[in-house]
Design a protein that fits this description.
single chain, globular, Flavoprotein-like_sf, Rossmann fold, 9 strands, two-stranded antiparallel sheet, alpha/beta, seven-stranded mixed β-sheet, 6 helices, FMN_Rdtase-like_dom
Amino acid sequence: MAEAAGPASAAPLRVATLDGSYFPPSKTSMLLDFAAKELGRHRRISRTEISVAELGPGFTSALSRAELAPEVLQRLRAFETADVVIAGSPVYQGSYTGLFKHFVDFVEQGALAGTPALLVADGGSDRHLLMIDHELRPLFAFLQAFVVPGSVFAAAGDFDGLVLVNAGLHKRVRKAVAGLLRLL
C-alpha cells in the first residue's frame, strides 16, 4: 500500500484503485494515479493499487473465489473493504476489458454497498466516452456502490505518451474528485 500525504485526519482514507489495462503503465493507470493524488491533496489516504494485468495466473485461471491465489484474494478484500474505490479501464470493443470484469465478478454481493466510487476510462477518441455511462456505471450500480455523478473520460489526444497534457482533463479530474469529497 502506498501512503499519500494530505491534510491530517484521524485515520487515512483507504482507497483502492482498480486498473483494467492489460499493459501497465498505461493511460488508464495515469488517470487513476492522477485522481488518487488529487484525492490525497485533500485527505490523507492509504492506497491499494490493483492492476489486473499484474495479478497473474492465480487470478486469470481462477473460476471461483476459492481458486484465487492468496495475494489476489488479499487485493480483492482490500477492494471490497475500501472507503473509496477509483476504478478505470481502457475502452475495449465498446466496453471495459475482460480482465477488469473477471476481477469484478469475484466481488462479494453487497461488499461495495454504499462505497463511494469514481469511474475513469480512456479511449482512442471522444466517440468512446459513453462507455462509462453505458457499461461501467451500470456495473457499479449492480454492486450497489455510490457512484460519483461526474466521471472522467480521456481520449488519446489528452496525452503525450503517458503524460496528461490536456488542462481541461486536469480540471475534469479535480471536479470529479471534488464530487467524491462531497460524498465523504
